[in-house]
Amino acid sequence: MTTPFPYDHGRDTGPVPPPGCPAHGLGVGPGGLRRLYGPEAEQDPRGLYEKLRAEHGTVAPVLLQGDVPAWLVLGHSENLHMTRTPSQFSRDSRHWWALQDGTIAPDHPLAPQVAWQPICAFADGATHERQRGALTDSMARIDTRGVRRHVNRYSNRLVNGFCREGRTDLVPEFAERLPMMVMCAILGMPEEYNDRMVQAARDMIRGTGTAVQSNAYMVEALTRLVERRRREPADDFATWLVEHPAAMNDKEVAEHLRLMLIVSYETTTNLISNVLRMVLTDPRFRARLSGGHMTVPEAVEQTLWDEPPFAAILGRWAVGDTELGGQHIKTGDALIVGIAAANTDPVVRPDLNADMEGNRAHLAFSGGPHECPGQDIGRAIADVGVDALMMRLPDLELAVEDAELRWVGNLVSRHLAELPAEFAPRSPQDDREPPSMGKPNPATRQDWEVRSAVRHTAPTPVRATVPGDPDQAPSASAPSGATTTADGSAAGRVPGQRKPGASTRLWRVVTRWWNGD
Prior knowledge:
Layout lengths: L33 E2 L3 H5 L1 H12 L2 E6 L3 E6 L2 H8 L5 E2 L6 H4 L10 H4 L10 H16 L3 H17 L6 E3 H6 L2 H10 L6 H13 L4 H21 L5 H7 L6 H32 L1 H9 L4 H11 L6 E6 L3 E3 L2 E3 L4 E4 L1 H5 L31 H18 L4 E2 L8 E3 L4 E3 L3 E3 L81 H11 L3
Parallel strand pairs: 1-2, 3-9
Antiparallel strand pairs: 2-3, 4-6, 5-13, 6-9, 7-8, 10-13, 11-12
Helix pairs in contact: 7-9, 7-17, 9-13, 10-11, 10-13, 11-12, 11-13, 13-14, 13-15, 13-17
């Protein structure tokens, strides 16, 4: 099936409402094409994907901001083919006719995302290998234990900021701040950049009217960092890029730092928010996490299927005329990697309610040579951050009904606007040292490495607790049936949230599980 654009590359769009006109908010634009922006796309993206799939198949013509036409790739296999074939679908945005003829001007909301930059994300072949090699080599130098310590310390600090209140909004007070704090520490940026960077990063990703100014602020701050590291090397990511044998110039280094900061921030913020929502609202996950039958990393992987941090990525351009999913793609056409749509492709996932445990075939981090190189860092921040939060606040509960939560959507992502939660007020902890996360089990994961833990389907039988017997009651530091080491920590696999201060109700669940009831 071929569905050509109803007009030539957006040059003859027919009547177009003036800026600010309510008609711009409608879901259908010139030529009957559906808009990938506006109320419908933002409020019900999954519904929009299904309409497009029914109307056009696995590749659908859509309209971007300003009613610029592009192709949204909906099929899982079609997305894999596109991302794995740079000879047909390049990452170099200079192939796009909309940039060549000025349709996407420097002040267009999409300009910060698609304007060509001297970085690996916009390169193919040898240039991509050189620049990406510098990134991956520098990432290999990151101290994984240090990342875990940063996440623990900053998580503890953030919880200290609201723990006395007994109530918080987990999106602005935790999920949006933790990734930027950790990434600024890894990159070597002064902490005073954190809050402003959070605002600028989110504004740029949203493609708002101030996206260009937000992008300029980030570039300026990162450029100063690069210049400083040329003069004053340090043991941080910025210095490693500056000194790498790839010999990138200052602009290249600054732009790669910007790329890493933006991508890791947005993906990890959304991932943390979505995992927390799942844990707080879905009875299956809360019960399994509390009962020890599901690890936080497993909840993270399920979230990557259901609510991927990036819903879509505008970032492939046709090198020549070709076909994809039965559609005729012309030279210079833009294609969108439909991550969320591919994750719900009925060919690979006929039952959307099925448990995807152990299946990492999702496209949450794209695919091919441009697959996200820092995905394990994002997983680690989300895993350790959520674990640390639940350890400090094991009685955390959603303060509103799930249906009352608000979402904000755009071309790139769909994220929670708020996640109000409540808990019993408690005193702050010393945040000069990271909170103890317990001794890691070698059979599950080490330090910040994230992988599904081995499940204990048949726990070792233990003597049942006798009510009223103080010698058999669960101690404050270990569940019934666990042995205690010399330092007072529980031996064996004990989920991180089951620490001192857990509620009596939670301990009852733990005891029943440990005794095999």
